[in-house]
TrEMBL record:
Entry-linked CDD domains: MFS_NIMT_CynX_like (cd17339)
Transmembrane segments: 32-50, 70-88, 100-118, 124-145, 157-178, 190-208, 229-248, 268-288, 295-316, 322-343, 350-373, 385-409
Domain of life of the organism encoding this protein: Bacteria
Keywords, ordered alphabetically: Membrane, Transmembrane, Transmembrane helix
SUPFAM superfamilies documented for this protein: MFS general substrate transporter
One GO cellular component, as annotated: membrane
Protein name: MFS transporter
Amino acid sequence: MNPETKLEELLIDAEADDEVVQHTPPAVSRPWLLLLGLILVALNLRPALSSMSPLLSEVSNSLGLSAAKAGLLTTLPVLCLGLFAPTAPILARRFGAERVVLGILLTLAAGIVLRSSFGEVGLFAGSLLAGASIGIIGVLLPGIVKRDFARQAGTMTGVYTMALCLGAALAAGATVPLSRYFGDSWSIGLGFWIVPALVAALFWLPQVGQKQGAHQVAYRVKGLLRDRLAWQVTLYMGLQSSLAYIVFGWMPSILIGRGLSATEAGLVLSGSIIVQLASSLVAPWLATRGKDQRLAIVVVMVLTLGGLFGCLYAPLDGLWGWAILLGLGQGGTFSLALTLIVLRSRDSHVAANLSSMAQGIGYTLASMGPFAVGLVHDWSGGWAAVGWIFAVLGVGAIVAGLGAGRAMYVDVRSEKV
């Protein structure tokens, strides 16, 4: 089978329920409304993460947070991505995927209100609630796409990814200007992102009444936690994600520490994220043209490290060039991590289980990176020492990627229960 065809067919399955596979999808009466709803929901899967970082220094000063607490604030939502994602299939089986998406959108909106309006306690509680909500919705949407747009799975995956990246870029670039417009209020800047969440919930409401009508067949995959290749894929996912969430959580603060204004720092982050759109589409296509993915992994990781070190140490005159380099690298690292899950799996059921392992354990591991940056900054009083964290995570990702990029399958098989 053509690797691109396999990628299109299985990427959606990678985040689906690891126990249940849906068959005989019901007809969609108004596909345009479902498509609009999916785009609006996907737009909300990153603003709660990327909107905080441009205002992190201001929020910390306002509430008297130490760098360690600020690090925990950037870590908490990422940790929740890994911890709460496995609950999505359970909730979907109990209540239906559409109802869960609607309910969790409202939970996400509640988390945004909490973190922007109720001081330090609300800040941390709201961040936890927002991260948990994003983790759950992120698992459910691909399954809905697989069921209702099976013939356009590849196109819809691209639309979904672009909407996700666009939401991240908009929040990174617009949060500070919004807070300035409303009287230098960081709480309004953060709280604004309840608006797209409620709009998405409104447009998603018609989907709640849709019939599920699917025949279910249960599969079991055993031995994944004992497989070396599975752990290499998981470590690559986790280590590259750790660098990504350090950028989400700390890059604006690093740039502000180097002399940029909060608005300028947010725009640099936003621009870097937008660049990811290109490499996230191109990198998997190029990677499947060779005998394996090891060279592609090394290239995108070198680009990522080059961009990180350039943003941290190089003269500010060339900052935008380094930000673009960083975006090209990180768009490729993330899309290759998803590609590895597919290419290292013999079938969709193994891919679903490998995805659950790689994202659940990987995102939990990834959450340690932003926290470590906060601790190192608090200990050193500056940002220069953070380069060591970049180096350790980057080299670790390359080592894991060289193992995960080999042309072979994880040594497990799926079987009917």
